[in-house]
Amino acid sequence: MSAVGERIAAEINDRGAITFTRFMELALYCPNCGYYEKEEDIIGRGGDYYTSVSVGSLFGELLAFQFSEWLQEIQESSAKCSGLTPTDRVGEGGEVLRIVEAGAHGGDLARDILDWLHKHRPELFGALEYWIVEPSGGRRNWQQRKLREYGNSVHWVGELAGATGRAFPDSRVQHSAGLRGICFSNELLDAMPVHRLGWDAKARVWFEWGVTLQAGQLVWTQMPGGTPDNRNHQSSARDLISQFQLPIDHGLLDTLPDGFTTELCPAAEEWWRTAAMALGCGKVLTFDYGLSAEEFFMPERKEGTARGYHHHRPSSNVLAHPGEQDITAHVNFTAIRTAGESAGLRTDAFLTQAQFLTSIAARIWKDEGSFGEWTPERTRQFQTLTHPEHLGQSFRVLVQGRGI
User: Fold this and answer.
1) Whole-angstrom Cα distance, residue 10 to residue 43?
2) Considering the entire predicted model, what is its pTM?
3) Which residues lie below 8 Å from residue 26, measured CB to CB, with a gap of 6+?
4) What is the mean pLDDT of each run of 10 residues along the chain (404 residues)?
5) How far is it, in rounded angstroms, from Cα 136 to Cα 399?
């Protein structure tokens, strides 16, 4: 058993069955031995999965072009958003603009964005701070090595609230002192630990799936309601269902097969809510695998959406080889959209990645000089990023904003 597997087994032996949330947290993020704590390359051809960043620099360059448009709009509307007079200039007594990235992994996307802004929008680059939210000391070291050339333009914090300025306690306060800029993530929310809930058709109740040991192997088990893990007192499955208001009516319950499984991710909703409440003027957006709330209950998803990835092969056995395979679960975009709107954000777009990137490229093609030469290599990368059989259809993009 791997080092993180031994850590999980020891916790189960000490405290009994653990929730899948806790299992996923340890398997992915356990210091020094969790999957995302590995320094070896886990992304790209030699790793376990591809991302839009591993395709090449174009993804970051397209984002930089879009970000530059939004940031310029923020500058133009600064009086409305931050209380500055129209004559105030960013960097001369006014608040600086920020790009906040959460889940930067090795720092490649940050580098691609900063490279393009430095080359093509130098004045904007000079007024900009790039903040990376990174709780892991190991990953922070990788990122700092990758971004060394940008020196004081890049800053690191361990929590989202530290990068967005003031974290607002509720959505009724004035947001003029909040973040002026952009807060975004790419394939972050789908890696946040989830609760897995199962349906007992005979008893007509939901239960929470947990993880235990049987003959030395990690296996699934039903958690009793309110079972504590090593950190806090877990809500029962019924409490979770009630709290997060799944779109389940009695008619749908009548059709669900016994053992039907779905996931809930309170951590993703809380992350989005924190970003939304801290945003004074700008955008919050994410790129990720995901579904609407109703899509989680399609017949083909009776085993849920949690998957493991190892050497580019998906696996439904997410308990196998902890620390040695990626584990993801689809994002509930209905839930995070609602979280943002409840904090006062408006929804600007909910698109496939292909639709979002094509809309940016269409503007670039009208004035290629503002972006840089559209080379054959960029064409190849664009096709991979937008083709429905590659990354274009499976990734969705949610954009919410305030003030611009």
Assistant:
1) 30
2) 0.88
3) 4, 7, 8, 11, 34, 322
4) 93 96 96 83 57 93 98 80 45 71 94 97 95 94 95 93 60 58 97 94 90 96 64 52 59 86 95 96 96 90 93 85 94 95 97 96 89 94 89 89 93
5) 27
Contact 71, 102 (CB under 8 A): no
Please tell me the distance from the alpha carbon of residue 305 to that of residue 289, in angstroms, as a whole number. Answer: 10
Q: What is the 3-state secondary structure (H, E, C) of the chain?
A: CCHHHHHHHHHHHHHCCEEHHHHHHHHHHCCCCCHHHCCCCCECCCCCECCCCCCCCHHHHHHHHHHHHHHHHHHHCHHHHHCCCCCCEECEEECCEEEEEECCCCCHHHHHHHHHHHHHCHHHHHCEEEEEECCCHHHHHHHHHHCHHHHHHEEEECCHHHHCCCCCCCCCCCCCCCEEEEEEEECCHHHCCCEEEEEECCCCEEEEEEEEEECCEEEEEEECCCCECCCCECCCHHHHHHHHCCCCCHHHHHHCCCCCEEEECHHHHHHHHHHHHHEEEEEEEEEEEEECCHHHHCHHHCECCCEEEECCEEECCCCCCCCCCEEECCEEHHHHHHHHHHCCCEEEEEEEHHHHHHHHHHHHHHCHHHCCCCCHHHHHHHHHHHCCCCCCCCEEEEEEEECC
What is the CA angle 113-118-123, rounded to 5?
120
Burial class (CB within 10 angstroms; exposed 0-12, middle 13-18, buried 19+) of 136: middle
